[in-house]
């Protein structure tokens, strides 16, 4: 018993000290923390954005959490030290059975086990494809699954925002996070689709918590911007939804924080999609530069629709342009040197999905992640989830949508990688 107490001391001490440091730098709001059982085993399944996600979850949970980690992360000395102190279960992809056995044993011993179902850190900010390992663990152990979403961690120095992990200054201090705990999923029902839906619903709950204060409905973006007069005429509920939609744009690796982008003044898209040109720039200090024409020397991001598409076809492109296309022809590819075409989807003025450039690989052996894909409007933004609509198709739901949701284009669906895809009929 004495030896056991001594062995526990380092992890307990580090939890206290590490928790204090995390609370100093991060302000973590919790949504439904009571959904973590007071006793007994449960499998926690969070989204995975940063190297510090384990610390965030440890601070947000009242009970100690034991982690399951890909052996590839053990290359870092600091990670190996953390893993040893906290008795982390390492998974080798060529020999996963032993890790699965240890995880099931820990669950049956009444421990909280955290497994990141994506199996990798997102480099787009969005949910990546879920792996199958947790399904086998859940069914064999017979313990409940709890999806969890941490909102706001994209932009942390530990995330891949700005194209790299670490080696960057934080945007703010303290940094605000919102962690939402989902409803229990019975192990027999814990397939990938059910868990993914649970994660997306958690993301919506976290977004709603962040913007729960009534002042957002009275806030007006400072400065000018396309559509500002229309924004002033909206009711408080509509304004609040647009602020939430602007925050959603800032959680993905498309339009960059504190980085200018270009629009055409005669293009209706900047006025018709207020989150792009009003609330996102106000929240994340991104300058919107209005232009009378496309200057092919102006490399960078351009946002628009059919008008911009037409003008790009008549302009000599010298620099590299990323075209975020919200137009009616967005799914029609543009094959032109100097233009990276990124189809996007907005419904009733709210951005639902965005394509983005493929994120770089941090290491040569890193798995590729796609930012865009043919036949899709891009990745579903965190804070939206889909439900079947009466008569077929899907509607997008979330706190940024009206109560009835938003009708999506017919014959579209969310694929396994999180892309909002067009169904191609033979």
Overview in brief:
The chain has 426 residues and is of the alpha/beta class. It has helices at residues 2-25, 53-60, 77-85, 97-108, 133-141, 192-210, 228-232, 236-249, 269-272, 274-284, 306-312, and strands spanning 26-31, 42-46, 65-70, 89-91, 112-115, 145-151, 175-181, 261-264, 288-291, 300-304, 321-325, 339-347, 350-354, 376-380, 385-388, 394-397, 406-407, 412-414, 419-422. Strands 1-7-6-2-5-3-4 form a 7-stranded mixed sheet, sandwiched between helices. It has a 7-stranded mixed sheet with strand order 10-11-12-13-14-19-18, with helices on both faces. It has a 3-stranded antiparallel sheet with strand order 15-16-17.
Distance between the termini: 68 Å
Helix content: 25-40%
Counting DSSP E segments of at least 2 residues, the number of strands comes to 19
Shape: globular
Helices and strands in order:
Blueprint: H1 2-25, E1 26-31, E2 42-46, H2 53-60, E3 65-70, H3 77-85, E4 89-91, H4 97-108, E5 112-115, H5 133-141, E6 145-151, E7 175-181, H6 192-210, H7 228-232, H8 236-249, E8 261-264, H9 269-272, H10 274-284, E9 288-291, E10 300-304, H11 306-312, E11 321-325, E12 339-347, E13 350-354, E14 376-380, E15 385-388, E16 394-397, E17 406-407, E18 412-414, E19 419-422
Parallel strand pairs: 1-7, 2-5, 2-6, 3-4, 3-5, 8-9, 10-11, 11-12
Antiparallel strand pairs: 6-7, 12-13, 13-14, 14-19, 15-16, 16-17, 18-19
Helix pairs in contact: 1-2, 4-5, 8-10
